[in-house]
Design brief:
DNA polymerase, domain 1; alpha/beta; 2 domains; TIM Barrel
Length: 378
């Protein structure tokens, strides 16, 4: 009989709000269209300069004064200095898969660090962004969770991750020639639902048509959560058809409360009910993310239990993505054996649940979010 590794018995802290730190400087991407115009006028410029700046930033992915040749030099220097402070500085860049997977460790204005991962495939590209520096959810198998929470990111700090990736693709820096950024997933460092305002501010800018935003499809944006039920219900009411991804990792409360401590606040059933509600309100199928951990949550009976809980809430509303765990150095956690993984998938499919093993890119470049930041801290 296999023995499940135990989790430390002492309670794991839940940090729902960020500690006080310095506030990022005001950035163009933090402002609404009206606020941008007001900011430009405050600097002594004509109101139409705001639209020119938006076109450069969202359509050409640039905030560099030298690129804004349709503005007088004195004006562009003034506007860039006041509205486009450098929020992110690359501290480390790693590549895999022939350069089509790029992981960047960003240093923020206050020396906090976050990561983003750009993945280019033959027919699409996807960026994984961070919404917090660190994370307060304290999931013991997650590198970011073990860092603890430093602070929430501002809207502009998240948007800047996206703009940088979009520019790299457009400029042809990623092998395969110039391309557009197609998909965005909030699956990097942090719990997106714990930084709800900034995440929604980012999404609204991403889906706004150019030149006021990046013109992305909301259907190509995925927001992940470990199960902050009130925020999930709030997202349902937004009227923006993003994809909701629920990081479940266990179908039973005893184990999930160890793996995902927020489960002590909102149970598996409460969380699944909120996910089902999201489908009912938006018509968007929910993704269930399930990290397969050897001898921990990969038992066939747990696959059956998960299948039963999902089918009890109807059909056609959910898709399960089992994810081979990307272990962190020195961790007791490791990925399931391939035959166990196959049996888990087969059991779910036997319940009629669409199930796809998620592609795990970048394992050779510390692909699990938080690993680079953890190394830097050490």
């Amino acid at each position: 009989m296999s023995v499940r590794p135990s989790v430390e018995s002492k309670p794991l802290p839940l940090v729902m709000s960020a500690p006080r730190r310095g506030k990022p400087p005001r950035h163009f991407a933090d402002l609404s269209a009206e606020e941008r115009t007001a900011a430009v006028v405050e600097l002594g410029e004509k109101p139409f300069r705001a639209k020119q700046l938006a076109t450069h930033y969202y359509a050409h992915y640039t905030s560099a004064a030298e690129d804004m040749t349709d503005l007088p030099k004195a004006s562009r220097d003034l506007l860039v200095e006041n509205l486009f402070p450098q929020l992110l500085t690359p501290a480390r860049v790693m590549q895999a898969d022939g350069g089509t997977t790029v992981k960047t460790l960003w240093k923020l204005f206050d020396a906090a660090k976050v990561e983003s991962v750009l993945m280019r495939y033959p027919n699409r590209s996807t960026l994984c962004v961070s919404s917090q520096a660190g994370c307060g959810m304290a999931c013991p198998f997650c590198a970011t969770g073990q860092l603890g929470l430093t602070r929430n990111l501002s809207t502009a700090e998240i948007v800047e991750q996206v703009r940088s990736a979009a520019k790299s693709l457009a400029d042809g820096d990623i092998p395969g020639g110039p391309a557009r950024l197609n998909n965005l997933v909030f699956m990097g460092m942090g719990e997106p639902m714990a930084n709800y305002k900034a995440v929604m501010g980012t999404i609204r800018q991403l889906i706004a048509p150019a030149p006021e935003g990046l013109g992305m499809s909301a259907r190509n944006i995925t927001v992940s959560t470990v199960g902050l039920v009130p925020a999930m219900n709030k997202l349902s009411a937004e009227g923006i058809p993003v994809t909701l991804a629920l990081s479940l990792h266990a179908p039973d409360d005893d184990l999930r409360s160890e793996l995902v401590p927020i489960n002590t606040r909102w149970s598996v059933d409460e969380t699944l009910d909120a996910a089902r509600n999201y489908f009912e309100v938006t018509g968007r199928r929910v993704s269930i993310e399930y990290a397969l951990i050897k001898d921990m949550n990969d038992h066939a009976w747990r696959a059956d239990l998960l299948g039963e809980k999902l089918t009890a809430r109807g059909s056609g509303w959910v898709h399960v993505n089992p994810i081979p765990l990307n272990p962190t150095p020195g961790s007791i956690w490791t990925a399931s054996e391939r035959d166990v993984e196959d049996e888990f998938v087969a059991r779910l499919r036997g319940h009629g649940i669409p199930t796809t093993i998620r592609d795990t890119r970048g394992s050779d470049i510390d692909g699990a979010c938080g690993q680079l930041a953890a190394e830097e801290e050490e």
